[in-house]
Fold:
Amino acid sequence: MLRAARAASGRPVLADVSRNVGLSAAAVAAGADGLLLPAPAPVPAASVSAARTPSGSAAPGPADGGTRHAGLGAAGSGNGGSGSAGNGGAAGHGRVGGKGDPQQARRAGYAGVVAREFAAAGGIGLPGAMADPGAIVEADPEAALQVAEEAVTVVGALLRPESPVTLPECREAIDRVDAALATLLERRAALAGIVQRIKPVGGFAGRDLDRERALVRRMASRAPSLGEGRLAPIMNAVIEAGLHLAEERAHR
Ligand SMILES: C=C(O[C@@H]1C=C(C(=O)O)C=C[C@H]1O)C(=O)O
Structure:
């Protein structure tokens, strides 16, 4: 429904979860471009201006005085930033001003909540030390914001189709995809490493080319433009990197 609303209006759709932040995950999964969150305190315009849209323009402050925005980046070409009249435009990535910003600690609490919800929406675990945004919010508000940015970047790349037009927009979208790819590659290498320890013969010696061909075939159905022919060398490199890493670790 939210995607349909965006398609019809051509503008980012913000879901108001200010009364129930627990609905964030559902809103993101349903296609919200950004979330309206409860305002912890009135935020002066100066500190809000540090929140940026992916295209680099400052996100306006809360127009309604009662909510804050958290977002997944511009919804696509030509509709980011100033497009959503009345609700402050596309939300940024939850960035705030530098260390010492008196608003930061308060906002970080909400960023932590958003990070957790986004991670849940995408089924993605936050990396290691970031696993408990709630704890980080207490200990280190800046780290909490990083968690939010991480979750928004990675989950956004997976959940939201984008159609950027300008070079900077395209590169920002690519950077988000690369962040998701790197996260997945790291996770894949860890899993492949476990397999090497479980198999009777691990490493390059226990290579299973039938399995590798089969996984490339399955991936090609999700990546039809690349197809098996182009995916095969990519996956060969990924698999060999994992095997090298596993062998290196086995010999330590
Ligand atoms: C992980 C395994 O070991 C090797 C690595 C693979 C991979 O990284 O996907 C696939 C097949 C094997 O060559 C496995 O056998 O499943």
Summary: Residues 192, 195, 207-208, 211-212, 215, 239, 242 surround ISJ (CB under 6 Å). The first helix runs from residue 2 to 9.
